[in-house]
Design brief:
The chain contains 16 helices and 4 strands. It is mainly alpha-helical. It has 3 domains: about 180 residues, no CATH class; about 80 residues, Alpha-Beta Plaits (2-Layer Sandwich), CATH 3.30.70; about 100 residues. A 4-stranded antiparallel β-sheet has the order 2-3-1-4, with helices on one face.
Length: about 400
């Protein structure tokens, strides 16, 4: 994006591009935020701001009325807020912005609850134990949530626990400067932990791979229709005007992807290539191009429908069984064919794999239903191998 801005400004300085067309060029190149990008930015900013203000209001309310609150009122207040946050996570799901914010708030409230337990019951635990227990308590949420804010919170808690532990061993007083100027052993341990966390982050990022990209070359209605069909079947999403991307997690080589895209209608003049080392903002925006929450709801909805149909399909008449298996199986197959096959780092694959296994079982039942109906009319049917089309997919599926 920054290269595109610099290139456009260079064109202006060289006189290639008139100054009055600079804004149009920046908008076409995707440098100037679009209306959708502004909406996304405002939605995220206002959601985090609202959550922060609500949390601050709760803190000030508790601080102002702390002495007047009884033991049970204090616990009810903190635990009630924690239950509300978790209910919001369950309601909006982890892949939505509200769900991620609510999960982060639940992680923070867990620490507040642990501190309250230590204060009310005077457990006598050392300070470092609070932070260590806090980090241990939210570890499962951090792993399930898959959001950088939670990982940073968890790592900060571990760092503070380590520093406080070594300061207790050294017999030093607790203070902010004590955290900043900790004993040498503590700093070395924190350095090793943070370096290991950074190395793990980079390794996981490298495993997610880069991006496959298509840059539009040809124009015209026929080219646009063919491009739209090919890109939809391959799970591409528009990153900027004229550029579509998808994760580079397909098992096939790039030449095979080009050939299959061309067979599906991608114009010969379109450029198909790989992208790597996008700037963090563009990479983060690319990862949000797919509605992961909607995908996961579809997996679960179709899985439940297949399971319900599988339970009673053999009790239906041959004609009804054939019709139901045709309609429902067709819906499931359509979703599987159009599925973008996102990597684990963007969308957990367990629900998609479960749906695929269910569809394989349902395919066998559907074949039996069709066979029974055809036998009634003495129509010969060819028994093709089961799952002949379900085992493979676009570019031999994802790696």
């Amino acid at each position: 994006m920054h290269d595109a801005r610099a290139e456009i400004l260079q064109w202006v300085n060289e006189g290639v591009l008139p100054r009055e067309r600079v804004h149009d060029a920046l908008r076409t190149a995707g440098v100037t935020p679009s209306a959708a990008q502004w909406r996304d930015f405002l939605e995220r900013s206002l959601t985090w701001l609202g959550a922060t203000l609500v949390a601050a209001a709760a803190v000030y309310f508790v601080a102002a009325n702390w002495q007047a609150l009884g033991r049970y009122a204090k616990f009810a207040l903190i635990e009630g807020a924690l239950v509300v946050a978790l209910a919001c996570v369950w309601w909006r799901e982890l892949d939505s912005l509200a769900g991620r914010v609510a999960l982060f708030a639940a992680a923070v409230l867990t620490g507040v609850l642990l501190a309250l337990v230590g204060q009310v019951y005077q457990t006598g635990a050392d300070t470092f134990e609070l932070f260590a227990l806090w980090a241990a308590a939210i570890t499962a949420w951090v792993m399930v949530g898959r959001q950088p804010a939670l990982w940073l919170l968890w790592l900060a808690l571990v760092n503070i626990a380590v520093v406080l532990y070594f300061r207790i061993l050294a017999g030093q007083a607790m203070s902010l400067t004590g955290l900043l100027f900790a004993p040498r052993d503590a700093l070395w341990v924190v350095f090793v932990l943070d370096a290991a966390a950074l190395a793990l982050w980079e390794w996981l990022a490298s495993r997610t791979g880069g991006w496959l990209a298509v840059h539009a070359g040809a124009s015209g209605r026929s080219a646009q229709r063919g491009r739209a069909r090919a890109l939809r079947l391959f799970g591409f999403a528009p990153l900027r005007p004229g550029v579509w991307v998808r994760p580079d997690n397909l098992a096939a080589a790039l030449d095979d992807v080009r050939r299959e895209l061309g067979d599906l209608g991608l114009p010969a003049g379109d450029l198909v290539c790989t992208l790597s080392e996008l700037d963090p903002a563009t990479d983060a925006r690319a990862r949000r191009l797919w509605d992961v929450a909607a995908l996961r709801r579809t997996y679960r909805r179709l899985g439940a429908a297949l399971a319900a149909s599988e339970a009673h399909l053999d009790r239906l008449t041959p004609a009804a069984a054939m019709a139901e298996s045709f309609v429902l199986g067709g819906k499931a197959l359509r979703e599987l064919v159009l599925d973008p096959l996102l990597p684990e780092a963007i969308c957990p694959a367990a629900e998609r794999d479960t749906l695929l296994d269910q569809m394989r079982r349902y395919d066998r039942l559907g074949r039996l239903a069709w066979g029974r109906l055809l036998q009634r009319f003495d129509v010969p049917s060819l028994r093709t191998p089961v799952d002949s089309r379900l085992g493979a997919s676009r570019a031999q599926r994802a790696s």
